[in-house]
Amino acid sequence: MESTKVLDAKGLACPMPIVKTRKAMNELDSGEVLEIHATDKGAKNDLVAWAKSGGHEFLHHEQEQDVLKFWIKKG
Predict the structure, then answer these.
(1) pLDDT grade, residue 49 (50/70/90)?
(2) Closest alpha carbon to 17 in 64, 69, 58
(3) What CDD domains would the database entry show (predicted)?
(4) HSE (CB half, 13 Å, CA atoms) of 11?
(5) How far apart are the C-alpha atoms of 60 and 52, rounded to whole Å?
């Protein structure tokens, strides 16, 4: 999946992946896609809820070994 920006949040525990995602999203224009790489197992639920509450679109997620990858389109 194509993304505008990639955020490396590997090794960070809650709430840091969300804090860094919020900061990275502020640098994007509406319609652009942020790809997030995380290792925190709680990141999926957190990011889905955060995207919905912020008016963004949670596009997709996948797991590659221990790394969780997420794609969120800025609303």
Answers:
(1) very high
(2) 69
(3) SirA_YedF_YeeD
(4) 1
(5) 13
* Burial of 16 (C-beta count, 10 Å sphere; 0-12/13-18/19+): middle
Write out pLDDT tens, residues 15-24: 999 999 999 9
Q: Which CATH number fits domain 5-73: 1.10.10.60, 3.40.190.10, 3.30.110.40, 3.10.20.90?
A: 3.30.110.40
Catalytic site includes residue 14: yes
Residue 14 in this model has a pLDDT that exceeds 90: no
Which of 14, 28, 48, 59 is labelled catalytic?
14
Which residue is it, tokens 């990011």?
47
Residue with tokens 């224009």: 29
